[in-house]
Amino acid sequence: MPTAADTPDSARAAPCWHVRPTEPGTDGRSGVPCWGADGLKQLGDAADPEEVTSTLPDRWDCRPLLAGEEDLTIVFQPIVDLASAEVAGYEALARFPGTASPDVWFAAAAEAGLGAELEALALRKALATLPDLPPNTFLTVNVSPHLLGTAPVAAALAQPATLRRVVVELTEHMPTPDLAALREQTAALRGRGALIAIDDAGSGYAGLQQLAEVRPQLVKLDRALVSGADTDPVKAALAEMVGAFTSRIDAWLLAEGVETAGELAVFARLGVPLAQGWLFGRPTPHFAPLTPEVTQLVRTQVARAQLAESVASLLRPIRQREAYDSDDGPPPYVVLDRTEVPIELVLADPRTGAPYRAPVSLRVHPSAGVPETLHRALTRPPVHRFDPVLCTDRSGAVLGLLRVEDLAAAAATG
What we know:
CATH class of the largest domain: Alpha Beta
Strand order of the largest sheet: 1-2-3-4-5-6-7-8
Radius of gyration: 29 Å
Strand content: 15-25%
Mean pLDDT: 81
Largest sheet: 8 strands, mixed, barrel
Number of domains: 2
Helix content: 25-40%
CATH architecture of the largest domain: Alpha-Beta Barrel
Order of helices and strands: HHEEHHEHEHEHEHHEHEHEEEEEHEEH
Structural class: alpha/beta
Number of helices: 13
Oligomer: single chain
């Protein structure tokens, strides 16, 4: 069911009513007409969605749960592309008057037999904002998997002419009884241009079987694995495992509920492409951009993560001498020719301390990865295998020295 990505600022406690008696051809949870996979496929294949839904009511009445449709409003929280430090999309979240959470309202609607109607209302209001969606961004809308085939939800999803730039997020708050039907329903939505996301991966309901059946293009990491991941290596390891799985199925991983710079640093280091949470922006009634401060924070953390994975963090300073300089000085130092190209290393024998000369057998850029550089160093001829590696910029200027033992230690702990 749709829920806020964060603690909501509103919602009043709603009374619960008994579920209405169901009739043949209705959904046992909500008491409303249920469209199975075939019905959704008809919506997906129809040239004119209005023709398919012409026999359905224009609105499903949510009274007495809501006094009117205006009681449900939609807010938007940014989803950030960490690599570019830009907004990749927005999640549409339902809000209600009062102090109870949206979870309470949707639970009350389910008890009253109005679960599908309330979700459909939230969907219609969210999808109505598509014309205002900023360029090169997507809109995520939440749907309970067990309500995806109901007539109100199907009709709401059929209203837009296309579902391109829409991500239909299947929330994970109860097991899905019919995975085969869910697979067909999501295939129909893909046929209209939608992407499919699964919420709360790793929370128990998001089982491997459901991931295998639905094959989502976006997987949202359970917030329980996000919160405190910077201080809990087990959470970070589990997040890394989910990330490896999503990459194998050609999906994107989204870390939901990022609230601290430390958590951001962990997921930047793990290479998670998307993130969402109060750190980047709270839900607002409009499509808000990132603030300059947030943009700079993301860029800084991502740059630090990339630096930590590269050899740049292992650089040791080294003196430079011209080849014609008579004052050699103590080792180590690098010898440059007249064009300032490094041609030789003068090192100290670790056993005797006596200086000796070695050719520059390997040069790398500071952005080079640690494992790759270690592999290249250890595959040199045996006589030079443990010589230091020279680090230069793209113009050839010497930046420092890399010791093989430092590379090995970093690779072992990386």
